[in-house]
């Protein structure tokens, strides 16, 4: 591929929103600083949301612009973007790192008039541990199902044209998570395209413990439900999050309701057991498929990952629905 400076080389501001990422922020920034791209055209902005660990101390070791404010990720991105004049905005998660040629591989796609954003594929950074490796298998498989342009993409690693970002109104600050999905919807509804460049790699540090993974998925459950209130058609799913994933919280809820009601009508326990068995079989088949696909028996651990995710989404969704009902009763 030709050097970007020879043809299309816009100024790029890469924003990293961080909160308590002392373990990963250093390598994240190093990977961005080492990009094979003209240094005078690259700006890095770190927005810290109030870290209580040594994140900011680590950031001070790198030639980047640092801002500290108690705000969530979409607020951080909107604030930083309003205060930069770059033609292209880049976003990289604080718990991710990008390969040296990442930016060089993504930039050419933005030469197309109708392309709003472009992202690289996602690999696992901490694949030496079973849980994050399995989380990575699931994520990698879901992204591998994408064909052609996408309707939305994670902001884990993303380039966006500044003029289109302004045109669609930036990120929704009421969604601390799932704001990237909602943003993608607004982009594609305006007729713009989002591209996935499989040759550009981003390595994500997946949650290393079950507790951290559950907490992450609980938040996803809360704000995915809030997002679906606003855009009900999303429940049908897409290549990244299919309908088979979206229906699982409903099945988990039914399972527990039937389990409780079974104390009054025992026949309902059979229906509860049927739902559990159906989910278990589906999870086992899915895990076996990925174990075969990636030639790694550790992928069978995905059975547990799927159950934890479904339960976390169920609880998170229930919290959002209860809060919504309470707000309606008060108003």
Commentary on this structure:
This protein is α/β, with parallel strands linked by helices and 331 residues long. It has two domains: 205 residues, Spore Coat Polysaccharide Biosynthesis Protein SpsA, Chain A (Alpha-Beta Complex), CATH 3.90.550.10; 104 residues, no CATH class. It has twelve helices and eight strands. The protein has an eight-stranded mixed β-sheet with strand order 3-2-1-4-7-6-8-5, with helices on both faces. Strand 1, helix 1 and strand 2 form a beta-alpha-beta unit. Helix 10 packs antiparallel against helix 11. The termini are far apart.
Keywords:
331 residues, alpha/beta, Spore Coat Polysaccharide Biosynthesis Protein SpsA, Chain A, 2 domains, eight-stranded mixed sheet, 8 strands, globular, disordered N terminus
Residue share in helix: 40-55%
**What is the level 1 CATH name of the largest domain?**
Alpha Beta
Number of strands: 8
Class computed from helices, strands and strand pairing: alpha/beta
* CATH fold title of the largest domain: Spore Coat Polysaccharide Biosynthesis Protein SpsA, Chain A
